Amino acid sequence: MASYKTYWYTWGVLLVLTLGMILAGGAAISKVWIVALLLAGMLAKATLILANFMHLRFERVGLILTVVMGIVFTALALFFGIAPDGVRILHLGQ
Questions:
Q1: CA geometry: angle at 12 spanning 8 and 70, to 5°?
Q2: Separation between Cα atoms, residue 11 and residue 90, nearest integer Å
Q3: Average pLDDT of the chain?
Q4: What pLDDT digit, counting tens, does each position of 20-63 carry?
Q5: Residue 27 to residues 10, 24, 34, 40: CA-CA distances in angstroms?
Q6: How high is the pLDDT of residue 73?
Q7: Nearest to 74 by CA among 63, 62, 64, 66
Q8: Residues whose CB is less than 8 angstroms from the CB of residue 68 and which lie 6 or more positions away in sequence, other chains included
Q9: pLDDT at residue number 41
Q10: Crossing angle of helices 5-25 and 31-48, rounded to 10°
C-alpha cells in the first residue's frame, strides 16, 4: 500500500480543497473575494491533478508546457465561441 501513498495524499488534499471551495461559496464575503478564492482553488486542484494523476511531475518542461498550453487554448476557444451567444441572450431579455 506504500506505493499508493502519493495518490491518497493527493486525494485528501483535493477533498479538503473541494470542501473549502464549497464553504467559500456560501461565505458572507464580497463576491470578488469568493470568485478569487474559487479560482485559486480550481488552479490548485488542476495543478495537483496534472502533476500527480497525469504524471507530469516526472516529465520534461516541454511536454508540460504543451499539455498546459493545449488546455488553455481549448478553454479560450470555448469561451470566445460561447461568450457572444451569452451576451446576445443577455441583451434579449432587456
A1: 85
A2: 39
A3: 89
A4: 999 988 888 998 999 999 999 999 999 899 888 888 888 888 88
A5: 25, 5, 8, 16
A6: 95
A7: 66
A8: 50
A9: 93
A10: 170
CB 33 within 8 A of CB 22: no
Q: Which residue type does 60 have?
A: R
3-7, 11-15, 29-33, 43-47: lowest mean pLDDT where? 3-7
With a cut of 70, say whether residue 1 has pLDDT above it: no
Any residues with CB less than 8 A from the CB of 37 and at least 6 apart, and which?
20, 21, 24
Whether the model clears a pTM of 0.70, i.e. scores above it, the answer is no
Contact 72, 43 (CB under 8 A): no
SS3 26: coil
Report how far residue 14's alpha carbon sits from residue 77's, in angstroms, rounded to the nearest whole number: 27
According to DSSP H, which parts of 1-94 are helical? 5-25, 31-48, 61-92
What is the rounded CA–CA span in Å between residue 60 and residue 56?
A: 8
